[in-house]
Amino acid sequence: MGKRATTVDEQIEILESRGLHIGDKDKAKEILQDIGYYRLGFYLFPFEKSYPDLKSRTHEYLDSATFEDAVFLYYFDFDLRLILSRYLNRIEIAFRTELVYYLSNKYKDNSIWFADNIIDKKYVADFEKKVYNTDFKRYPSIRRHHQKYPNDRFAPAWKTLEFMTFGAVLKLYENLKEKDDKIHIANKFGVRQVVTFENYMHSIRHIRNACARGLLLYDMKLPQGLRKGPAGRDPKERYNIIGALRVVKYMMEIISVHRANDMINEVASLYDRLCKHAPSLIPFILNFRVL
């Protein structure tokens, strides 16, 4: 039998029994009911004596650990996701737009090039099942297209790709048969090697998904190490959030230097606020001012 659920009062007792200092218990109860005991646990973890060891956790807190600092770390992460989401969306749209514009003009006589022989045949064979399925056809613009043109198997690229997920668009790019097509788009974003560009885009997609799902950012680990390229690569940053943000910064500089500077300043300001109001967190947080 699994563990039993606990009330907010019991959660407070558990935290205090493990050595966590809670300045205002009524406020702590309010926060636990708002954020949730389990979610907040991810932000309490750095304050445990056994951190970062997950296998032999004691769940005992450092003498200096406070509930309030863990909550501040939670909101730092929350605000970081809000900031980055705006810029990640800008990169995604720019990539999608370039892909549609370039290939639709190169293959002017084929508005559904995304499902033709310029794409790997396995991707094309699975396209209707995995992308252009019943749910996809419910998008109003796609539905209206098929009502107007009932004999069309697919809507044209500029409509179809608009509603494909970032992951699906990236997969489409990876399945382009002509390497020159891939090189052209990578070069548009200042990256010479296709393999490096794909690596960068997968890193961006990973951060974007983490933001969308409310996952941790402050100590995130990339599943795929960053390749050395124009965004730089310090070996110590290859898998962490700072390395990933260097890629986001680089891509934003290609799109708009002003917006890239805005992002850097917003992230730095957020980090400075954390250092000022919760200095005990500094040892646990990477320096976001290095961007």
Structure report:
The longest helix has 40 residues, at 67-106. The mean pLDDT is 95. Helix 4 packs across helix 10, helix 4 runs antiparallel to helix 12 (257-277) and helix 8 packs antiparallel against helix 10. The protein has 291 residues and is mostly helical. The chain has 12 helices and no strands. The radius of gyration is 23 Å and the shape is elongated. The protein has helices at residues 8-17, 25-35, 37-44, 67-106, 121-130, 140-148, 157-160, 166-174, 179-188, 194-213, 241-255, 257-277.
Instruction: Indicate the percent of residues in helices.
Output: 55-70%
What's the total count of β strands?
A: 0
Outline type = elongated
Mean pLDDT: 95
**What low-confidence regions span 5 or more consecutive residues with pLDDT below 50?**
none
Largest beta-sheet characterization? none
Supply the number of helical segments: 12
User: Which structural class fits the helix and strand makeup?
Assistant: mainly alpha
What key phrases describe this protein's structure?
291 residues, mainly alpha, 12 helices, 57% helix, elongated
Q: How would the blueprint of this fold be written?
A:
Elements: H1 8-17, H2 25-35, H3 37-44, H4 67-106, H5 121-130, H6 140-148, H7 157-160, H8 166-174, H9 179-188, H10 194-213, H11 241-255, H12 257-277
Short description:
Helix content is 57%, strand content 0%. The chain is mainly α and 291 residues long.
